[in-house]
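[recover] target loaded
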């Protein structure tokens, strides 16, 4: 189960449909960022049992998704332009506490929530996008990002225990919905 405090607003797809190319570009950047998040945790938390071995395959998988997205953009004649960082990620990363070990707990939970929201939106895209190959791709991607949510929350429970994870997951899941609501300016994978 994806622990999201609220489902995506039913109007999201209608709001982004005309700018789907921007959402695809945003999504390509997001895959690269997901790989970078996992890799940076491997660098930072080398001594944590199982963390490098658990997150290394995620780095590879996210980079494979990035390459698949580059193919999807190229086939549709869409350029991988630079996009302004969405308020969503900036707001959420801002909630991560500075002090260890709370910092690790928060980083794992924020990563899990971004995976969960991405998975939920990929499901919506798989059901609503008219481009059939793209819709099929989003159907597959839903499953892998939902699994990544579990990988991050399982690691968090291993280090911090069930109760601490539940408390912080509840808090950060509410912050995640607020972060979505603040991302209204442009069509993004994580826009309102
Ligand atoms: Fe991914
Ligand atoms: Fe992922």
């Amino acid at each position: 189960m994806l622990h999201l405090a609220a489902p995506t607003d039913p109007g999201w797809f209608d709001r982004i449909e005309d700018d789907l190319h921007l959402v695809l570009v945003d999504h390509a950047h997001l895959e690269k960022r997901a790989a970078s998040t996992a890799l940076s945790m491997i660098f930072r938390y080398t001594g944590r049992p199982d963390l490098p071995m658990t997150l290394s395959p995620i780095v590879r998988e996210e980079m494979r998704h990035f390459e698949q997205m580059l193919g999807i953009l190229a086939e549709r004649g869409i350029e991988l332009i630079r996009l302004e960082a969405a308020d969503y990620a900036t707001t959420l990363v801002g909630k991560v506490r500075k002090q260890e070990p709370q910092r690790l707990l928060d980083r794992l939970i924020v990563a899990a929530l971004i995976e969960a929201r991405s998975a939920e939106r990929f499901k919506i895209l798989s059901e609503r996008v008219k481009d059939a190959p793209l819709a099929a791709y989003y159907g597959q991607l839903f499953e892998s990002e939902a699994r990544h949510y579990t990988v991050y929350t399982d690691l968090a429970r291993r280090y911090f225990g069930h109760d601490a994870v539940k408390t912080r997951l509840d808090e950060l899941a509410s912050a995640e919905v607020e972060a979505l609501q603040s991302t209204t300016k442009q069509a993004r994978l994580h826009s309102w």
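[recover] notes: The mean pLDDT is 96.
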